[in-house]
Amino acid sequence: MDRFKTLTILHSNDLHGDFLSKELDAELLGGISMLSGYVSKVRQEAPNTLYCIAGDMLQGSVIDSEFRGISTIEIMNLLRPDVASIGNHEIDYGLAHLLFLERCAAFPIVNANLFIKNPYTRLFSPHVILEVDGMKIMFIGIVTEDVMLGMRKDVLGSFVDVEDAAKEVGHICNAFRQEDIDFTVLLTHIGFEEDKKLAARLDPEWGVDLIIGGHTHTILEKPETVADILIVQAGVGTKQIGRFDIVLDTGKNTIHSYDWQLIPIESGHCPRNEQMERMILQFKAQTDKKYNRPLCQFTRPLTHPDRYRETELGNLFADLLQSSMEVDIALLGSGSIRKEAVDTILTYGGLMELLPFDDSLMRLRASGAQFKRMVAYTLREEMLLGGHTEFYQYSQGLSMVFDRESRAFTRFDFQGAPMEEARLFTLALQGYHYINFTDCFGFSLDELLENGRARVLSTSVLDVLVEHLPEVGLRDARVEGRLVVE
Q1: Which residues contact 449 (CB under 8 A, 6 or more apart)?
Q2: Alpha carbon of 464 to those of 60, 325, 359: distances in Å?
Q3: What digits encode the pLDDT tens for the residues 432-479?
Q4: Among candidates 371, 351, 353, which has minimal Cα distance to 441?
Q5: What does the alpha-carbon distance between residue 444 and residue 448 come to, in Å, rounded to a whole number?
Q6: Each residue's pLDDT tens digit, 163-202
Q7: Position 151 confidence tier, pLDDT thresholds 50, 70, 90
Q8: Distance (Å, rounded) from C-alpha 181 to C-alpha 296?
Q9: How far is CA 62 from CA 13, 18, 181, 298, 332, in A?
Q10: Beta carbons within 10 angstroms of residue 23's beta carbon
Q11: Which helix (H) or strand (E) holds 259?
């Protein structure tokens, strides 16, 4: 028997309900219909093909939000991944709902580091072993610690530190040595830099060959290699898919050779899945009836090209929250805005796709000195180097200039004058960031609560914006230099 065998692995991550193709220069780009068509085409051409998804299938579209992920799972069942891992947004509809969705899935969903503490109970199968042409391929799922930020309950726990996650991988690999695993893949959703740290901590004897990751939406020209482990991601959405063509030495259980490409999903080489399109359009017809009504019109398209800097859409939404809630300063999590631009007419459904993660809005009081500490923490070097951290869009009246070299503010003005450090300011903050205040701002929420109790301003940011956006008229939001890093 030939010990050299071929294996093709296709991989996606962070699909976020990116279901519909976009029209661009008369050519269809992306869309899960053509992604499905490409996967089916490769499966026919290369029988030893496995397709996997590294987390965050859910959230990001009206179709997903309206049907609370059930529509996404039905669509994924037609896409037929061989295995998927969970991401932090899989938990957005609640843990119980995620477990229900997992039962609806016609494919295995793996995770090794999320569990119930007492009694210790895994929530998902930690791994799956798939057999292809006599080869045994093990997939192990690992999720980011961000999944815990949305579930502050003592009943749950997670091996969230990469050292602990590495040990858990070792436990699994050691427990299945007798299976004679030919190839081991970690299907992670922890971010590209954390993937590299995780690879460095793995014992070579555990036999991990490949890390397929997600969470940071990283685009690569070629795989990263750490401790002889290949590490890849495939960006975000359905505009591209990662492809490995591997020759395995099954005698040594090692990679003999490989080729990796990031394949664009384009109509020229990706056939469409008409059955999937019909299903998606049925869901879309239902959501259009409910959400395809205009809310407001802008003088021009507004943009949000980067979650780590001030943007037009960020300024617009932060200003609306500040004025409608009658607070001094509103902070909007920049990652809450999930699209890079909006056209001149914004519909209700378009707003839901812009801000799919609805949340409550809390009022806090902070001194000028405390608020400066909050902003300074978001500008730590981890963020400036491109780490997956929290960043905020700030309402009007602020003018902050941060010098990266000295790690100090050279300007911190409010309404045209230096912010008074002893004065108390009212802040509007989303519930997620309130609950996880220490993680987001670097010090205890208790310090702010000494200034006065917190208050729920609204149970829905989306409701506030739906109510007040029609009042905007032909508003033109621009980047003003509210926060500048030099």
Answers
A1: 364
A2: 19, 9, 11
A3: 999 899 999 999 999 999 999 999 999 999 999 999 998 876 678 899
A4: 371
A5: 8
A6: 677 888 888 998 887 788 999 999 999 999 999 999 999 9
A7: low
A8: 57
A9: 19, 10, 41, 21, 21
A10: 8
A11: strand 254-264
